[in-house]
Amino acid sequence: MNQETVNRAGEKVLGIIGIVFNILAIALIGFGMASYSSVQGTPEFQQYIEDEIMADPAFSNPEEAQMVIDMMSSSFNIVGWVLIALLALSTIFAIVALVNLRKRGKASMAGVFFILAGLFAGLLSLTSILFYIAAIMCFVRKPRASNNQNLRDDDFKYQEDQLRRKEESVRREDELRRDDTTTTRNDDDTPYRPL
């Protein structure tokens, strides 16, 4: 059965926009991590720590405050690298989905990869929503049977209908002939009886 190909431009555009958003987010997170590490050693940052954090009455001694600051700095770097890794995985899945969209009949596989890309981009971020929409479009939009195939099917049905009508007319003619022959025989077989 011939099938038309579905134009997947919408899915491709959404995938490319999502990839661009992922790359921008990776760049922003990397810039934020680099900025934080460069600011961390400056005298202004040390002054801010002494004024704001070490003066906090919740900390009983300066060693506790320094330990919290060091833990926050290391956790900021770890969270940054984890986010970069997740966004990189999301970008890779989105690229694989775009490659699958180019292959005929692989739209469902592309939809699965778009869902994975959306999950790694964040459950409900703007990027993940774009990937989810692209996945839904991959699953929902199916190719239709081509017009040529529909014309052939209609032509075949027409021919079938014509053949059936012809057979019915032949059958009716045969029945009429049988009825005519039986009535003429009965008339000929009965002898003439005068009154």
UniProtKB/TrEMBL annotation:
<feature type="transmembrane region" description="Helical">
    <location>
        <begin position="12"/>
        <end position="34"/>
    </location>
</feature>
<feature type="transmembrane region" description="Helical">
    <location>
        <begin position="113"/>
        <end position="137"/>
    </location>
</feature>
<feature type="region of interest" description="Disordered">
    <location>
        <begin position="162"/>
        <end position="195"/>
    </location>
</feature>
<keyword id="KW-1133">Transmembrane helix</keyword>
<protein>
    <submittedName>
        <fullName>DUF4064 domain-containing protein</fullName>
    </submittedName>
</protein>
<feature type="transmembrane region" description="Helical">
    <location>
        <begin position="78"/>
        <end position="101"/>
    </location>
</feature>
<dbReference type="InterPro" id="IPR025273">
    <property type="entry name" value="DUF4064"/>
</dbReference>
<keyword id="KW-0812">Transmembrane</keyword>
<feature type="domain" description="DUF4064">
    <location>
        <begin position="7"/>
        <end position="121"/>
    </location>
</feature>
<dbReference type="Pfam" id="PF13273">
    <property type="entry name" value="DUF4064"/>
</dbReference>
<keyword id="KW-0472">Membrane</keyword>
